[in-house]
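Batch queue: ligand-bound targets. Current item pairs a single chain with citrulline. No template structures supplied; prediction is de novo from sequence plus SMILES. Inputs echoed for audit trail.
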Amino acid sequence: MAATSAAPGVPLGCDSEVGTLRTVLLHRPGPELQRLTPRNNDRLLFDGVPWVARAQDEHDAFAAQLRRRDIEVLYLTDLLTETLQQDDARRAAITDVLGAHPERADMPIGSARGTDLGDPLRAYLAAMLADADPAELTVLLTAGVRNDEVRSGLATGSLVTTMLAPETFLIDPLPNLLFTRDSSVWLPDRVAITSLAMPARRRESQLTELIYRFHPRFAATSRTHGHHLEHVEGGDVLLLAPGVVAVGVGERTTPAGAERLARLLFADGLAHTVLAVPVAQQRATMHLDTVCTMVDTDKVVMYPNVADTLQAYAVTPREPGAGGAALELAIAPAEPFLIAAAKAMQIDTLHRIDTGLDPVSAEREQWDDGNNTLALAPRLAVAYERNDGTNARLEEAGIEVVRIAGSELGSGRGGPRCMSCPVRREPLPG
Ligand SMILES: NC(=O)NCCC[C@H](N)C(=O)O
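Prediction returned. Tokens below.
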């Protein structure tokens, strides 16, 4: 377990978006991206078919920028392989991936659901997964299994494998693992396992749950939320300040997901205010972090086309009623987001730095994840190099920008924040 042994000093967890980053979870794009074709890329939530070798080069350069600043980089597949050395974890992984998923009745044609495998094929796949060593199992779980890869190996007859098209996935690939932000969030000293809304991504948080449950590095970590609960995605969760959490509600996170998260946070004393922020249900704004990310303790980079209309409902816990009644929520009327956020953060103003230079370049750069920056420390952020206008504005505002290439990485519609799950940040000075 040398690759991921515990580092001394600052404990695991994050209480803000901008405290100095010490440990981050990434996923280097791998064979799961080779599964994308022009016929399945929409279903698998990519806007094109990336050049995988170049995507890996871009990602390696991103990781190198982080390591240069003494940030420990953990890779999701290393953690998963280490996790799968334990028999209990292997059994759980195999049950999760092959179990019947009646709740996935919305799974479109082109991917077999657990219930669609039939007994002979399920038994064959279960044996195949059980025989794989931990590294092989990681590949099978992340790159998936196509029908034509197993068909010839089945000794007993399976009408399913006979009749399904060769390219049908029996186990779906997970190309969006690249976006580690979405499948878990540290809040602040425990990890929330999220519940991903899109069928193509649901299995990702089964894997993160497995890692946090079984990997020795996280043995002392408490978990909250869970992949079986209401939908919450990490890209919608912003730790605006210690105790203040903004949750976007739109294409991915549901009102019920935001409410569940708020209740869990309040019950455990992890937040005093949750801001529920309605976000337009469109691909360009799939998460709150596609329109707004923090670059300093009191500064956000924000898409100007929504800045004046973005609202927030401030949610706080009600004083417990007599007799210790169940936790109730107080919900304030909606207010402009920047105002509600500043109030909850107890600062005069949450300053806004605009995306782009004009409405057209703002729209282009928002689409290319100009808003989706990863703060490495206050006033130091990673951004895609292509977003010239936004990066110039950030620098004018005193933010140091670490530029990375993203021509191939960006085809999944995610930027540096989406591609990173901070695991340890230094607490902000009190
Ligand atoms: N936090 C983020 O905005 N993540 C980007 C996720 C992109 C991925 N292709 C998706 O559609 O879910």
